[in-house]
Amino acid sequence: MTNDKEQFRVEYQTGKATFERGDYRAAVKHLEKACTLINRNSRVGGEAQMWLVTAYEAAGQQTEAIALGQQLTKHPDLDIRKQSTSLLYILQAPQLKRPEEWMTKIPDLGAISESDPRDRRGSGVTRSNPSLKKQIEPEAIDLSTVNTKDNQFIWVALVFIAALVGGLLWWGI
CB-based contacts of 70: which residues, under 8 Å, 6+ apart? Predict the structure, then answer.
């Protein structure tokens, strides 16, 4: 029994961590395993199932997410019931039609290997490449073309603020 609790803790924490890294399919696997190792009617079991609902949704498994969300609306713990009702309301909301140009495609980061540098994305700017440094440096500005005439705005604003503060003090507000 103690081994099951420890294995649950490991699977649950791993599932949450992989979810937060964006590897939703792996998160689903770990959270499903965690849910089999704990009493589903306990508070911790309900929390693990709530994470699983969210992971299902993120992994594109909408029907599984809704089905589990509906089960959790009958959970013995009041907080789990409230959370699942709110989450189910969001999951079952009608999808709005959005133009493609409003959408940003977010890649599944779980498929990228951390050890393969060819899969990494970046600006490509390195400190050792002098030709790129020239492109990044801002061009010099001729100060003789810059308007440096004072327009008295700060003095007008300070006089206004002083008059306002004086008026407030005069009336005792």
Answer: 88
